[in-house]
Design goal:
Layout (H helix, E strand, L loop, with lengths): L3 E9 L3 H15 L6 E6 L4 H7 L5 H8 L3 E6 L9 H13 L4 E7 L17 E7 L9 E4 L7 E4 L5 H18 L4 E6 L7 H16 L4 E6 H10 L6 E4 L1 H14 L7 E5 L7 E5 L16 H18 L2 H17 L15 H10 L2
Parallel strand pairs: 1-2, 1-3, 3-12, 5-10, 8-9, 8-10
Antiparallel strand pairs: 4-5, 4-11, 6-7, 11-12
Helix pairs in contact: 1-9, 1-11, 5-6, 7-8, 9-10, 10-11
The structure holds 3-isopropylmalic acid and manganese (II) ion.
The site of 3-isopropylmalic acid has 4 residues, from helix 4.
C-alpha cells in the first residue's frame, strides 16, 4: 500500500541548504525504487529570516509543522546572530514543543572512513545512543539572584522525572530488542555523585528491565568512564541510554570516532501516535564554506535515511524502512570512494557525493 509522506524541510543557514539538496536528491532517487511517495514543503526558518523579521519561529508556525509526518532540518547557525538565539529559538523549541523526547544518534563507522582510533574498524564502531531530549539541564529551570552584584547566585536545575525517564527507557529497551544485536543496554549517568537524579534513572532502568525486558542485558557506566571507553573499547557497546546533558557530550565523542561531524546524523523522535519527528545532521552550518560545494553531505544523507527507517517503522510501512536501509547501504558503498570526510578534502564536491550515493542505491 502506498501512502504519501508529508515532509517539512527546513534547509536552514550557511551550508545547510547545500547538504539538504543532496539529501533530497537521494530521497528522490530512492523513492521510486520502493514505491515511496512524499510531498515536500520548504520553510525558510533560520538566521536570515530572524534578521529580517526579528522572529525565529512562532507557536503557530510550530503547530503548522506538527501537521507533517516528519521534519528535515539542514543546519542552523548564522555569524550575525548571537549564539543561543537560533539554537534555543528553533532547535530546542521544536524538540520541546513537539515533545520529541528521544534523540537517536547512531555511532556507525562506515567502510573506508578514517577513524581517529588505532586499530578500530566498522566491526568495532556500530552502536546507537538514545539520549533523553526534553528534560535534565535543558529544561531551562533556574535563575539569577542578586544579578550583577558581588553576591550573585545562579542556579541551573537538573530535572529528572519518573515519567520522562520511563518513556525514554522503554523506547531504548525496545530499540535494543529491535536491533537484535547483542541485546545489551547500557545506562550512562553519574550515580556516585548525582544521588537524586541518577538514582531515579537507575531504579527506573532496573525495574523496567526486570519486569518487561528480561531478554536484554542491563549494564551501567558512569559518564566519565563512558567517555574513556568510547575511545578505548567502543566495540563494547550495543545500545546506550543517557539523560540529555550527558548525552549531548558523549554523542560528540561518538561523532568523532565515526569519522567526524560530516558523517553523524541525529533523529529527534516523538514515538507517540501522531507524533512528529525531526531529523538533522549534527554538524553546524559551517558559514565560511557557504556556496563552495565543498561540505560533506554524508551526514545529511544519513539523516534522510534515518528519517525513512524511523517513520517507516512507526507507521508500519515496510517500503519506507527498506528505502532507509537502501540509503544506509548506499552510503556504505560511497564512503570508500572518498578520500576524507572533512570539508574540501573529500576528493569530490558536495553535489558529486550526492550523485555517487544516488547512483549506488
Ligand atoms: C546537539 C546540539 C544542540 C544540543 C545545541 C545546538 C543546542 O549540540 O543537537 O547536540 O545541545 O542539543
Ligand atoms: Mn551537541
Amino acid at each position: 500500500m502506498s501512502q504519501t509522506i508529508k515532509l517539512a524541510v527546513i534547509p536552514g543557514d550557511g551550508t545547510g541548504p547545500e547538504v539538504t539538496a543532496e539529501a533530497c536528491k537521494v530521497l528522490e532517487a530512492v523513492a521510486p525504487l520502493e514505491d515511496v511517495t512524499f510531498e515536500r514543503v520548504d520553510f525558510d526558518y533560520g538566521g536570515d529570516r530572524y534578521l529580517a523579521t526579528g522572529e525565529v519561529i512562532t507557536e503557530q508556525q510550530i503547530d503548522e509543522l506538527r501537521q507533517f509526518d516528519a521534519i528535515y532540518l539542514g543546519a542552523i547557525g548564522h555569524p550575525e546572530v548571537k549564539p543561543g538565539i537560533l539554537e534555543k529559538g528553533l532547535l530546542l523549541s521544536i524538540r520541546f514543543q513537539l515533545d520529541q523526547y528521544i534523540n537517536l544518534r547512531p555511532v556507525k563507522l562506515y567502510p573506508g572512513v578514517d577513524c581517529p582510533l588505532k586499530d578500530k574498524g566498522p566491526e568495532h564502531i556500530r552502536f546507537d545512543v538514545i539520549r533523553e531530549n526534553t528534560e535534565d539541564l535543558y529544561c531551562g529551570a533556574g535563575g539569577f539572584l542578586r544579578k550583577n552584584t558581588a553576591q550573585e547566585i545562579a542556579t541551573q536545575e537538573m530535572i529528572a522525572t519518573r515519567f520522562g525517564a520511563d518513556r525514554c527507557l522503554r523506547w531504548a529497551f525496545e530499540h535494543c530488542r529491535r536491533r537484535n544485536d547483542r541485546k545489551q543496554l547500557t545506562l550512562v549517568h553519574k550515580t556516585n555523585v548525582l544521588t537524586f537524579a541518577a538514582n531515579l534513572w537507575e531504579r527506573a532502568f532496573h525495574e523496567m528491565g526486570e519486569a518487561e525486558f528480561p531478554d536484554i542485558t542491563r549494564d551501567y557506566n558512569h559518564i566519565d568512564a563512558a567517555c574513556m571507553w568510547f575511545v578505548k573499547n567502543p566495540e563494547f557497546y550495543d545500545t546506550i541510554v543517557v539523560p540529555n546533558m550527558f548525552g549531548d557530550i558523549i554523542t560528540d565523542i561518538g561523532a568523532m570516532i565515526q569519522g567526524g561531524l560530516g558523517v553523524s546524523a541525529g533523529g529527534n523522535i516523538n514515538p507517540d501516535p501522531g507524533g512528529c519527528s525531526m531529523f538533522e545532521c549534527m554538524g553546524g552550518s559551517a558559514p565560511k564554506y557557504t556556496g563552495q560545494n565543498v561540505i560533506n553531505p554524508i551526514a545529511a544523507i544519513a539523516a534522510m535515511g534515518m528519517l525513512l527507517s524511523v517513520i517507516g517503522e512507526q507507521k508500519g510501512l515496510d517500503n519506507l524502512v527498506r528505502a532507509g536501509q537502501r540509503v544506509d547501504a548506499a552510503i556504505g558503498n560511497t564512503t570508500p570512494k572518498m578520500s576524507s570526510m572533512s570539508a574540501g578534502q573529500m576528493g569530490h564536491s558536495t553535489s558529486a557525493i550526492g550523485d555517487l550515493v544516488a547512483e549506488s542505491l
